[in-house]
Amino acid sequence: MAYVYLVTLLILLEYLIFGYLVSRARARYQVVAPAVTGHPQFERYHRVQQNTIEQLVVVLPALWIIGLTLSGLWAAALGLVFVIARAWYAHGYITSRSGGGRHHGFMFGLYATGALLIGAGLGAVKALF
Length: 129
Known about the structure:
Blueprint: H1 2-28, H2 40-69, H3 72-95, H4 103-128
């Protein structure tokens, strides 16, 4: 489970970094709080952060369930794929003029999330018997 602990911390650190980037973009593009719209580039930073928190609601519990019921190593590996995919997603979204560069990062993150959910489901069923 030590790897699950470390990957959990990486996931949370990445989310905090995205939040920091949003605050910097807010200042750079002069979007005064509580507004979340304004400059399109600010909105890209904001969407990366918001989409990431939407994903964390699923990823973190699934990560822990699979880690506790099946394999901490597999859970950590899938969680690490998620972290890398989120960074790829953020880079693609923020640097692309249309935001279209986010697709591949999003899809790999979705695959990791799906695998975590399937593993967590299998682990939960296994724990019943």
